[in-house]
Amino acid sequence: MFLLILSVLILTICSVTYFYLDTRFTSYLYNNLYGGDLVRLELAKQTFKLAKDSLFLGLGPGQTIINIGVNPHNIFLEIMAEYGVFFLMGVLLIYIKILMMYNSINEPFISSLILSFSISFLFLTVSSSSLTRIYPVWIVFGLLFSIGNIYSFKKKVNNQKKK
Q: Residue 34: its pLDDT value, please?
């Protein structure tokens, strides 16, 4: 469990560090727009247009960077543009399920781990790095989902035994 918390912490630090070192985004910012909010709004518009042009079925992995020139700075828009709206709904459903597990797990360590990851994940969703290609995020995402399901299953079994 310690390694899981450590990996979430390292992942968060690496993503934030990459955000400040992303030179392509910095050059785009200085050459095209002069405000961070305006840049993100323009990137969101361009990414949404890419998703719409693909009929929300997805362009394929890495295509947003090829078409826009930089990362969209929003993981949800990036997933929608690259993998489609159905894949995005799946990711959102898993994330919501992980959040719902926070309340249902009586183990304080596991529930705090789920809460810390959920908060970290929200901050990572607007980083400049392409989160879809940072595999440790998705490994931790899957591990927390699995751990939560194991604890939920144990809770159901214990409740059935009591009856």
A: 55
83 in any annotated domain: yes
Domain that holds residue 109: 8-162
pTM higher than 0.70: no
Q: Is residue 56 part of a domain?
A: yes
Distance, first Cα to last Cα, the chain = 32
Report the number of distinct structural domains present in the chain: 1
DSSP secondary-structure letter at 73? S
CA distances from 118 to 5, 33, 74, 126, 158 (A): 12, 31, 16, 14, 27
User: Does the pLDDT at position 22 exceed 60?
Assistant: no
The length of the chain is 163
Q: How many CA atoms lie within 13 A of 83 on its CB side?
A: 13
